[in-house]
């Protein structure tokens, strides 16, 4: 990595963090909704492909264990839908890899759960399928994408 690309990477990271200020109210609303659903006995279900699957697993682990080693708290119920290799492969073989998350959501999701979807592009068929299933079942869904344009064009139609 040369100095120019390092500088661009740092500038891009700063820009991304600064952009969060413009959606502060939405972030606080999301936190409030998650807290309410958890208080009603719900859990957090997470999914993503590739590196986003790793992020989903990591985030679920942080909710279950703790985010800060200096603070002990009760575990927050969270499950990554991207961790059960046997189920993922069985679903991919018997149905389609497009269904690996939606099938799990149908089986494990309840009315008080929150679905968190992590995706760089938002274009993967299994991500689109889980979002359709979540919409059908009236789940609260938080989607983390690289850009919101994908969400507006693809996911809300």
Question: How would you characterize the overall build of this protein?
Answer:
The protein is an alpha/beta fold. The chain has one domain (23-155): 3-Layer(aba) Sandwich (Rossmann fold). It has helices at residues 3-19, 24-39, 51-64, 85-94, 100-108, 125-136, 148-155, and strands at residues 44-47, 78-80, 114-118, 140-144. The chain has a 4-stranded parallel beta sheet with strand order 2-1-3-4, sandwiched between helices. Helix 5 (100-108) runs parallel beside helix 6 (125-136). 24% of the residues are buried. The model is unreliable at 149-157 (pLDDT under 50).
How many structural units, i.e. domains?
1
Give the fraction of residues assigned to helices.
Answer: 40-55%
What class, by secondary structure content? alpha/beta
Low-confidence stretches: 149-157
Mean pLDDT: 88
Q: Describe the largest sheet.
A: 4 strands, parallel
Q: Say which CATH homologous superfamily is assigned.
A: Glucose-6-phosphate isomerase like protein, domain 1
Question: Any key phrases for this structure?
Answer:
7 helices, 157 residues, globular, 55% helix, alpha/beta, single chain, Rossmann fold
In short:
The protein has helices at residues 3-19, 24-39, 51-64, 85-94, 100-108, 125-136, 148-155, and strands at 44-47, 78-80, 114-118, 140-144. It is of the alpha/beta class and 157 residues long.
